[in-house]
């Protein structure tokens, strides 16, 4: 136990000093038993401030230090390393928060000073009962799991593999590439999306350090940083990937048809089988298919719900024509297990739909647009496919209802986004840019056509972004109208848009041929379930929450699990790539060491007093507590008690709070310390 | 089946035929109307434009009296419905104003009276029940059901029409008695009622668009459940045709839902006072009668 405490009261410039009389606090603390040195200083966190602490430790032979300053979230680490350098155990230092908990929230100087004295004295009492703690060391498995094979996940996997570490890249659709592979061109350079993406996809497939698992889902993730065990369900493709050469003969001969999910729902527009026109027909594929020509891997997937063999027991053409006998109707799902040390979550986004929402949905559909039932009201991903040279019409722009070239196209921004009435308050951030791009792509396809944009604000912040938007207006003649469309209805072969131009104050009625809605970006529909499997937090929309919005943007609050890309909020390609690299850097930083040091603030159980009620086991949110049998020397069972796995324990203290026999204690926050703090009040 | 009834002023005047046909139809359907004792003005249009407190107080009083009956309270007028439903909502959305209104009206009201529009009542009776007294099915009648604003907006409390953007309550009632409701585009577009006295040109343009859309959809008539809609669409057809420069003048009968139900139940058109409308309903009656 500590006997000789030093106290340092920080002014934090005016932050604390204006409201709290720091000199008086230091003076008052001098009289507290156990305190042998107490001073105030303008910035204790500064180099000279830290020097003061180091010198005092030596001069006064301190064995504990209390700093009255800002929140321990800020500088606890700083001060702990200061005292460690001075030869003390770092856990013999405590920070009393007299800024956020005192000076910032009070006005009365006398009362605030009094409160600061109390706060610092509480910490002194605690520190008197502190014991030196040793950091925990855990082994590190130097292999990463990347969940999601979109551009963010691809970037993370490639960067980790580039440092010669193993990566498991998990993707649930048949091919990697994500939404980026569906795009036609990208802003602000108008370079072909697939042309810049597919080399990366090939690199992933060829990299010796990357294990690629597509058409696979995460079943389980257990363990803790450095020591995760993951179970992955590799769904059956009904195709032996070892034998398949990707020749495509099965797909060519297959008589079964299905809407191709890769075409963003265009194949569903008129009901799956009423494929009336080129667009809808082109958006269909075969029951055994590779979703798009550059797919990685090129192994097809057989979809039994559309396959004649599975539905009617007939056909079997694919097996007959396959030159390498790769078709296997008996193939089953496989469960694979991997040990990994770090995880990167890059599950990406989905689009909000203006259609009728399910009963339990927190969102509203757009009844004023007829819930999007008209086939000529499409979303932006569908428009990307319509103008993509690999799309259902090979890039010849036709509208879904009658295959005619649309002479006028309306682009509606902020559909769902920034619309509390529909349940979504945020800005989806990328729509202003891709809408500008859409108007250009349209103009380049239909030279004498007219693109009309309804917008709320144009948000084109980014390198060369606003210039790009201006180009759409000035060179490609897009008509930007500031206002929203309040209703869309069909009259003959036109869609009539009712709206307003809020700059001229006029009501508008605009007849157009095609409507493209820039719908809000949402996280994947099952993002919450995955979050629960992984143990990471999510916001009200289901986006994953970073550990700190500014300073820890790619980490989660669960150690070892990192985030990249649009699963944590709307973002564009450059940002998603940057995050992929950032998350890779975080994983690689972990892999730089054979062992990992962890904070020793973990719980432990007194096996003598534990009565085995399992309240702690039920309370623990991290599944860090297990049952343990105690045997006597002859091997007879004496009792069963709780046991804490220090690797999993996050030090939340819940077990300690629920323990009825006081057997669960949190290192650094045991009952003795906390009672002493309270009694000091 | 008994139900509380708040008549309101239009039922005594401009849309007398709406109340009359409603009473006849409900009688046939076995619904007995119990009038709210000593009901007073709902304060529509001028009242709530002038003062929220006035509007709230009047209807807190009306509903307090209605709750004495221990029955849901029904009204035929869409505006009355809107004002009464508004007060029930006010209890949660603006409790302070609500309490003020209770003091002003010198009553206490616990929000216990369910407010429903005639349309809701009919919809809740269900197609089976509506078909029971059927004598002359409205076979093949192409009806454009027009909901306007008061039965659908704001969706928080005005829910009589169904989905705020794509209401279908009237369509379902009419389909039950053999009509063929048309799919059309202007079910909830504004008819301009608020400008009836001040800006007739606006009303003509707005009403005209609604009527033209109904005609385009191939409707034989426009069917409404709101006295304001009926009046606006009915009296402005000549002006609207001029304002919109239509080649063919609008001559679209605008009838109340209960008038069509009445015809289907074998009530004489004279009794239903179908001859009170400005745009002739003669051909319609001839076809259905």
Topology (SSEs and partners):
The complex is a heterodimer of chains A (681) and B (289).
Chain A: E1 5-10, H1 14-17, H2 22-30, E2 35-41, H3 47-59, E3 64-69, H4 72-85, E4 93-97, H5 109-128, E5 136-139, E6 143-147, H6 151-162, E7 166-170, E8 185-186, E9 191-192, H7 193-206, E10 210-213, E11 216-224, E12 227-234, H8 249-253, E13 257-259, H9 278-282, E14 284-286, E15 288-289, E16 301-302, H10 308-312, H11 317-321, E17 334-340, E18 342-345, E19 349-351, E20 377-379, H12 380-387, E21 408-415, H13 431-445, E22 450-455, H14 465-474, E23 479-482, E24 485-491, E25 494-501, E26 506-512, E27 514-519, E28 521-523, H15 527-534, E29 561-563, H16 573-591, E30 595-598, E31 603-605, H17 615-619, E32 625-631, E33 637-644, H18 654-658, E34 664-666, H19 671-679
Parallel strand pairs in A: 1-2, 1-3, 3-4, 6-7, 6-18, 7-10, 18-29, 20-27, 21-22, 21-27, 22-23
Antiparallel strand pairs in A: 5-30, 8-9, 11-12, 12-17, 13-14, 15-16, 19-28, 24-25, 25-26, 31-34, 32-33
Helix pairs in contact in A: 2-5, 3-4, 5-19, 6-7, 6-16, 12-13, 13-14
Chain B: E1 2-5, H1 16-28, E2 32-35, H2 46-50, H3 52-67, E3 73-75, H4 78-93, H5 95-105, E4 115-117, H6 118-131, E5 142-145, H7 169-176, E6 180-181, H8 200-216, E7 221-224, H9 227-235, H10 237-243, E8 254-256, H11 257-264, H12 269-272, H13 282-288
Parallel strand pairs in B: 1-2, 1-3, 3-4, 5-6, 5-7, 7-8
């Amino acid at each position: 136990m500590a006997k000789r405490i030093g106290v340092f009261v920080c002014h934090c410039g005016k932050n604390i000093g204006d409201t709290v009389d720091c000199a008086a606090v230091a003076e008052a603390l001098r009289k507290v038993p156990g305190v042998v040195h107490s001073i105030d200083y303008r910035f204790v966190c500064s180099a000279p401030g830290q020097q003061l602490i180091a010198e005092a430790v030596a001069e006064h032979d301190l064995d504990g230090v209390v700093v009255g300053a800002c929140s321990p979230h800020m500088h606890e680490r700083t001060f702990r390393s200061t005292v460690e350098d001075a030869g003390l155990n770092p856990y013999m230092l405590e920070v009393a928060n007299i800024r956020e908990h005192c000076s910032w929230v009070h006005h009365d100087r006398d009362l605030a000073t009094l409160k600061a004295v109390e706060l610092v004295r509480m910490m002194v009492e605690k520190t008197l009962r502190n014991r030196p703690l040793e950091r925990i060391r855990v082994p590190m498995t130097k292999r990463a799991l990347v969940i999601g094979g979109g551009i963010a996940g691809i970037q993370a996997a490639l960067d980790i593999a580039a440092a010669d570490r193993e990566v498991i890249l998990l993707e649930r659709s048949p091919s990697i590439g994500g939404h980026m592979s569906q795009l036609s061109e990208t802003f602000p350079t108008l370079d072909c999306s697939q042309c810049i993406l597919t080399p990366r996809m090939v690199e992933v497939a060829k990299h010796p350090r990357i294990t690629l698992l597509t058409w696979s889902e995460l079943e389980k993730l257990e363990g803790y940083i450095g020591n995760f065990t993951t179970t992955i369900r590799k769904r059956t493709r009904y195709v032996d990937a070892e034998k398949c050469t990707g020749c495509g003969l099965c797909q060519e001969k297959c008589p079964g048809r299905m809407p191709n999910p890769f075409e963003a729902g265009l194949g569903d527009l008129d009901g799956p089988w009423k494929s009336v026109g080129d667009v809808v027909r082109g958006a269909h594929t075969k029951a055994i298919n590779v979703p798009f020509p550059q797919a990685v891997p090129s192994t097809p997937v057989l979809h039994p719900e559309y396959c004649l063999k599975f539905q009617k027991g007939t056909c079997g053409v694919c097996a007959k024509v396959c030159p390498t006998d790769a078709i296997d109707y008996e193939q089953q799902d496989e469960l694979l297990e991997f040990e990994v040390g770090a995880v990167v979550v890059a599950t990406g986004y989905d689009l909000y739909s203006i259609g009728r929402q399910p009963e339990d949905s927190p969102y509203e559909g757009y009844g004023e647009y007829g819930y999007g039932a008209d086939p000529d009201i499409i979303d932006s991903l569908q428009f990307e496919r319509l103008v993509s040279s690999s799309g259902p019409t090979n890039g010849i722009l036709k509208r879904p209802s009658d295959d005619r070239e649309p002479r006028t196209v309306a682009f509606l921004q902020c559909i769902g986004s920034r619309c509390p009435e529909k349940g979504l308050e945020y800005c989806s951030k990328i729509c202003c840019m891709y809408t500008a791009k859409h108007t250009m792509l349209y103009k380049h396809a239909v030279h004498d056509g007219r693109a009309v944009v309804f917008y709320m604000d144009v948000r084109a912040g980014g390198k060369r972004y606003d210039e790009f938007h201006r180009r759409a207006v000035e060179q490609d003649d897009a008509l930007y109208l500031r206002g929203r469309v309040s209703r869309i209805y069909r009259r003959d072969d036109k869609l009539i848009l009712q709206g307003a131009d809020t700059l001229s104050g006029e009501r508008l009625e605009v007849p157009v041929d095609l409507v493209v809605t820039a719908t809000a970006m949402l996280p994947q529909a099952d993002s919450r379930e995955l979050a629960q499997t992984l143990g990471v937090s999510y916001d009200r929309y289901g986006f994953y929450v970073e550990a700190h919005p500014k300073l820890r943007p790619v980490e989660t609050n669960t150690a070892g699990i990192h985030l990249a890309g649009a699963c944590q909020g709307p973002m564009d390609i450059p940002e998603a790539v940057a995050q992929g690299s950032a998350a890779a850097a975080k994983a690689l930083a972990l892999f730089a060491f054979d062992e990992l040091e962890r904070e020793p603030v973990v719980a432990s159980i007194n096996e003598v007093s534990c009565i085995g009620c399992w309240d702690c086991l039920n309370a623990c949110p991290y599944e860090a507590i297990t049952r343990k049998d105690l045997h006597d020397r002859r091997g007879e069972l004496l009792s069963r008690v709780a046991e804490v796995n220090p690797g999993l324990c996050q030090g939340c203290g819940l077990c300690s709070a629920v323990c009825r026999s006081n057997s669960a204690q949190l290192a650094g926050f045991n009952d003795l310390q906390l009672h002493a703090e309270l009694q000091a009040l | 089946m008994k139900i509380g009834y708040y008549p309101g002023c239009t039922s005594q005047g401009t849309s007398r035929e709406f109340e009359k046909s409603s009473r006849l139809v409900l009688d046939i359907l076995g619904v007995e109307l119990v009038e709210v004792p000593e009901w007073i003005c709902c304060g529509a249009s001028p009242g709530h434009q002038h003062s929220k407190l006035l509007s709230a107080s009047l209807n807190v009083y009306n509903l307090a009296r209605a709750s004495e009956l221990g029955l849901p309270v029904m009204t035929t007028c869409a505006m009355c419905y809107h004002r009464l439903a508004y007060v029930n909502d006010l209890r949660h959305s603006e409790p302070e104003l609500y309490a003020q209104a209770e003091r002003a009206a010198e009553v206490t009201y616990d929000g216990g009276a369910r407010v429903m529009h005639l349309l809701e009542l009919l919809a809740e009776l269900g197609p089976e029940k509506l078909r029971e007294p059927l004598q002359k099915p409205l076979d093949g009648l192409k009806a454009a059901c027009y909901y306007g604003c008061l039965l659908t907006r704001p969706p928080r409390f005005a829910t009589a029409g169904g989905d705020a953007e794509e209401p279908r309550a009237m369509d379902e009632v009419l389909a039950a008695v053999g009509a063929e409701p048309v799919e059309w585009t202007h079910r909830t577009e504004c008819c301009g009622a608020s400008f009836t006295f001040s800006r007739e040109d606006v009303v003509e343009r707005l009403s005209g668009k609604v009527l033209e859309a109904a005609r385009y959809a191939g409707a034989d008539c426009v069917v409404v459940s709101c006295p304001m809609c009926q009046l606006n669409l009915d009296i402005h057809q000549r002006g609207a045709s001029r304002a919109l420069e239509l080649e063919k003048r609008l001559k679209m009968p605008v009838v109340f839902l209960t008038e069509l139900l009445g015809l289907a139940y074998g009530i004489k058109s004279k009794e239903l006072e179908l001859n009170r409308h400005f745009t002739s309903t003669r051909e319609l009656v001839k076809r259905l009668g």
